[in-house]
Amino acid sequence: MITIVPATAADVPDIHGLIRALAEYEQLSHELVSTAADIHHGLFGPRPYAEVILAKADDRTVGFALFFHNYSTFLGRPGIYLEDLFVLPEHRGAGVGRALLGALARIALERGCGRLEWSVLEWNEGAIAFYRRAGAQLLDEWRIFRLTGEALDSLAAESE
Question: Which has fewest Cβ within 10 Å: 29, 76, 104, 130?
Answer without folding.
Answer: 76
